[in-house]
Inverse folding.
């Protein structure tokens, strides 16, 4: 069964807790990013664990290998479900990250961000990358697999050129999900939950369509049953 991963893009503890109090851990995991984690720290993860939620800690580490290894080890000791790094940190950094993760008893899934979806061909060229955007995404995704990581974060719209190049167990974690009647916000290339699963997404990351819904629990339930329909 596919669970939804709800992105908790909040600046403070009370708003995050209020939303989570309306969600059922049978239907979703939670994603905590840089803003909320920096504001609240590990206590929030412990709190969500006590409510039986699994946590994806979306801190996108990118640094020298030894620093990333220690950061991944420290994060893994919090008992999280999933963690990520930037693939552009290179193979030695990703391998070090994996070593860090594997030092903890219950090692989390480790995935990588290839090219940020906020980047386009122009911004890629700006940092000295002359490859086509899609080629660069595929290149970094392959490097991620070669480094032994469990998968990547990508737009669901990229699955058509990625999916066939990887083993069936490689994970594709996809934000950029919108229901037909949702506004896109700042997401440019979106898919519905069912379309993304049908295209091969392993885990859907959904923020505002749930967090800004008038009835978050009903919206979550609706998506859960939509993506798990036979
Ligand atoms: O509100 P929305 O559904 O757009 O939230 C998507 C979440 O996924 C946000 O936390 C955003 O930072 C994250 N994300 C993304 N695109 C990426 C990587 C992460 O939207 N490429």
């Amino acid at each position: 069964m596919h669970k939804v991963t709800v992105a908790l893009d909040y600046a403070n503890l009370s708003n995050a807790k209020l939303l989570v109090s309306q969600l059922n851990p049978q239907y979703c995991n939670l994603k905590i990013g840089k803003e909320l984690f920096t504001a609240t720290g590990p206590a929030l993860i412990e709190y969500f664990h006590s409510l039986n939620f699994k946590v994806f800690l979306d801190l996108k580490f990118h640094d020298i290998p030894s620093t990333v290894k220690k950061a991944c080890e420290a994060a893994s000791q919090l008992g999280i479900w999933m963690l990520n790094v930037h693939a552009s940190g290179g193979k030695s950094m990703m391998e070090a990250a994996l070593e860090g993760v594997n030092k903890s008893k219950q090692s989390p899934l480790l995935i990588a961000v290839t090219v940020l979806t906020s980047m386009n061909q122009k911004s890629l060229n700006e940092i000295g990358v002359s490859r086509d955007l899609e080629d660069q995404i595929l290149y970094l995704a392959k490097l991620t697999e070669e480094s032994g990581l469990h998968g990547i974060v990508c737009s669901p719209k990229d699955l058509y050129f990625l999916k066939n190049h990887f083993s069936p167990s490689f994970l594709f974690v996809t934000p950029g999900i919108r229901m037909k009647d949702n506004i896109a916000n700042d997401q440019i290339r979106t898919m519905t939950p069912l379309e993304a699963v049908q295209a091969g997404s392993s885990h859907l990351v959904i923020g505002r369509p749930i967090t800004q819904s008038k009835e978050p629990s009903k919206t979550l339930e609706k998506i859960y049953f939509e993506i798990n329909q036979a």
Remarks:
- Residues 7, 9, 33, 116-117, 153, 175-176, 185, 187, 205-209 surround cytidine-5'-monophosphate (CB under 6 Å).
- The chain has one domain: 4-227.
